[in-house]
Amino acid sequence: MPLALLALAVSAFGIGTTEFVMMGLLPNVADDLGTSVPTAGYLVSAYAIGVVVGAPLLTALGSRVPRKRMLILLMALFTVGNLASALAPSFGLLVAGRVLAGLPHGAFFGVGAVVAARLVAEERRARAVATMFLGLTIANIVGVPVATLLGQRLGWRATFLVVAAIGVVAMAALARLVPRISLDQQAGLRHELGALRDRQVVLGLLTAVFGFAGVFAVYSYLASMMTEVTGLAEASVTVVLALFGIGMTLGALIAGPLTDRALRPTLYGSLAALAAVLVLFDFTVHVTWAALATVVVLGAVGFMTTTPLQMLVMNKARHAPTLASASNHSAFNLANAGGAWLGGVAIAAGWGWTSPTLVGAALAVVGLAIAVTAGALDRDRHEPSRVVATSDSVPRYSEVG
After folding, report:
1. pTM of the predicted structure, to 2 decimals
2. Contact 281, 166 (CB under 8 A)
């Protein structure tokens, strides 16, 4: 694999760390800024709003910016957002900093996925995209626990200063390792917007919204489920989240080769497996060893859906894939917000701490139904992992620099 994928993975590591670390720092932020933990929870939503808004907006604004330069600019904005969060003197300004940090998230992964796919041979493109996503999964194993511990020991501001430093390192890696892609290989804004009108792209985005919502219906309340139902100590929650991250990493490693070989079957299988595992979790959560094993499997099958979904929208928007690819991350964050909300509604309705598992299973089934419907409507029965930025069949890169 090209070293440029390492630069993308390092960037993804920083993004994944700042996205998920806030969940473990909410009590520290609330105490320091004189607010309640539920109010501090808006900081999680603020980041998600930044992703949903920033993905299509920044991608559209940068449609004619060379992709290497665009990646560096997006990481610069990410770094500034985290630095602003670290230095925020009030809760309101911290919310603004979180929105700013979230703005480049979807656009970076959208542009990065297209670049990753173009760095390798056609038959390895899904694996290249999955390699970039490994940075995101490893963040959940290493970055989030370490950053959370750092924030608890040295204060939450230290966490965001460290993430900002990771952003600087990522910018340097991108500048050194990612090749320049000729500007004439990129589609203009009109073509990018036109790709979003494709029926298969829309159905792919809807699959992401509903299917991945099943993951976050449970993940958002995983800590409470493991302490209230399984009976683990609160100190063990970090271990549980790390196990989920290990599962995510395994899912990314498995999904790449499978997606290169058979895109839609991989998508169908991962969504079906997700629904089945969520139903199983409703039973295994009561037994410690079984609950922990299921957490790993849940992380794996949940994240296995991301690579085929990413490749699907990129393939179907093959002549202008960047905006569709970025919009997919808006869809994932809508899934994040929607799944967490529906899981919370079930708990608030008195259905119990395990009720999000069945809510998540239902959402995964809806996502599977949309995916199967899209497959049935698709006249093109062959799904090569192919991403083309323009009508040129052979990509042209300049030297690294």
Report:
1. 0.78
2. no
Q: Which residue has the tokens 């395994």?
A: 250
Closest CA to 308 of 212, 196, 185: 212
Q: Which phi and psi (to 5°) does residue 400 adopt?
A: -65, 140
Cβ atoms within 10 Å of 13's Cβ, excluding its own: 23
320/379 Cα distance (integer angstroms):
20
Instruction: Find the helix or strand (DSSP H, E) in which 239 lies.
Output: helix 237-261
Pick from 61, 258, 24: nearest CA to 159: 24
Q: Token pair of 233, please?
A: 């100590």
pLDDT tens, residue order, the chain (401 aa): 678 999 999 999 999 899 888 877 877 888 899 887 667 777 877 888 898 889 888 988 887 888 899 999 999 999 999 999 999 999 999 999 999 999 999 899 888 988 888 888 878 888 888 889 888 888 888 888 888 888 888 999 999 999 999 999 999 999 999 988 765 455 555 666 666 677 888 899 999 999 999 998 888 788 788 888 999 887 787 788 889 989 988 998 899 899 989 999 999 999 999 999 999 999 999 999 999 999 999 999 998 998 898 888 888 876 667 777 788 888 888 888 788 888 888 888 889 889 999 999 999 999 999 999 999 998 655 544 444 444 333 344 443 33
Q: Position 266: which residue type?
A: T
Per-residue DSSP letter, 124:
G
Residue 6 one-letter amino acid = L
Whole-angstrom distance, CA of residue 143 vs CA of residue 128: 22
